[in-house]
Amino acid sequence: MDEPAQSGLKNRILGMLLRAVFRTLGLLPRRSLEKLARALGLLWHLVDRRHRELARRNVAWAYRVSPRSVFARRVVRENFMHLATVALELPVLCFYDPRKIARDVDIKGGEYLRRSMGTTRGFLLITGHIGNWEILAFAASLHLGLPIHVMARTLDFAPLNGIVQKMRTLTGNVVLEKNHAAIKVAALLRNGKCVGILMDQNASWYDGVYAPLFGRTACTSKGVALLAIRSGADVLPVFCRRMSNGRYLVEFEAPVPLSLSGDLKKDVLVNTARFNAVIERAVRRAPEQWLWVHRRWNLKDIPEEVRKKQDALPGMEEIEENRRFFKVAG
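and the corresponding structure tokens:
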């Protein structure tokens, strides 16, 4: 058997094993799943020093507190438990009956959604890795009554990717490969479709602009701003957060007012900063539910030729301060 065939067989076997594990976890009562998730989250927090330190420094960088402060330590400990809960809810979603969504999710702000649906243009939904973003896609699609085209990166682990991709399409949603999707998204917006984008992760200097997040410079994808400016599409924020009773609240917000001055470079920067501000407000409402283990403020080297072309770039002093602060978490 040649190597590709062996790899394919291995992935199929791993896929079957994963589906069996997922189905077993999906049968657990909710309370048992929550207890297991909290225990696993605390264990993860105990043994994974690298991510624990990175998360504490991210919280400290954002809130301007010490990484050893009571606040940073509490948020990170709760964050690990929350992320473990999100991970264990994934098997439940893989075998989820969409008709039960009203049992698990409350919807708020639907009037903003209906207003944008009433236009001939498509519209963009922006969100972040807050609460359970997979449940968000389920609930938003069912509330819309039509599919959402969701931008997502292919997972490196092929057996898991196949399961997750199938799960993401259970309610009719369409998954778009994140890389090189701009032309497809522009066409979808022209045809009146809805596109959902997670835009709270660190971007490379050639894909992003430098906009404030928690008052700190963060390289942020400029794609949403460019699409909105060129298409005239509404940009609606929507976020999901877990409530104290275990239910999720999916909350749509009013469209973000766009800067349309005619100066493309300026408008992209201004609008991206506005999107970041919306995401920041959502994080502040439930800081323990964001993805603090991601290197969101990782300021990389910027080529000199780029510095000549872009405005609002971080200076070398800011980059050095950033590096010194996060060095321990490396």
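(Above: one complete record from the training split.) The first strand starts at residue 105 and ends at 108.
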